[in-house]
Amino acid sequence: MPDSHGTTHTHETYQRLITLLDTSSVAYELIDHEPEGTTEAVSALRGHPMSEAAKCIVLRVKVDRRTTRHVLAVVPGDRRVDLDAVRALHAARYAGFSDAATAERLARAVPGTVLPFSFDPDLELVADPDVVAQPRLYFNAARLDRSLVISGEDYARVAEPRVERIASP
Question: Residue limits of the YbaK/aminoacyl-tRNA synthetase-associated domain (predicted)?
Fold first, then answer.
């Protein structure tokens, strides 16, 4: 069934997320809202501070000339990803934003709907400790018109991110 973008890609990612949460006995809430993908605007629609949102960004990390890795960085919605921290974590030469096509392929979602979960072995999940510490963590549920809220503790248990300080103040 196509989503609002006319693709089934996002629908499959959404179903995979819901199945994972249901089979992991995680309490979650779904929130339907106007289609929106920017953290500031969607946080306002959902009615919570941006600090409670999970901002999810796909990064390209060049470890050396031949080795490039991809990282899904998850930081609080009111902060930025500290690229130097991500680079240092991987002892890499470079860390920067991935191109849109690669990000969409690895995250299996369109920009603005990227989940704080990785369903691709080539996409390493790294979350800031302030994300997993949230009592209520909000994020778009692989769709622009639906969000999900879950505890940071349940998120960490189910998503199993590498937890590292990657958000800039």
Answer: 33-157
DSSP H or E segment with residue 162: strand 162-163
> What is the tally of helices (H) and strands (E) in the chain?
6, 10
* Neighbouring C-alpha atoms within 13 Å toward the C-beta of 133: 9
What are the pLDDT digits (tens) for 29-55? 999 999 998 999 999 999 999 999 999
Q: Decide if pLDDT at 2 tops 80.
A: no
pTM: 0.93
Rounded Cα–Cα distance for residues 12 and 124 (Å): 20
Are 141 and 115 contacting, i.e. CB atoms less than 8 angstroms apart?
Answer: yes
- Judged by DSSP in three states, 130 sits in helix
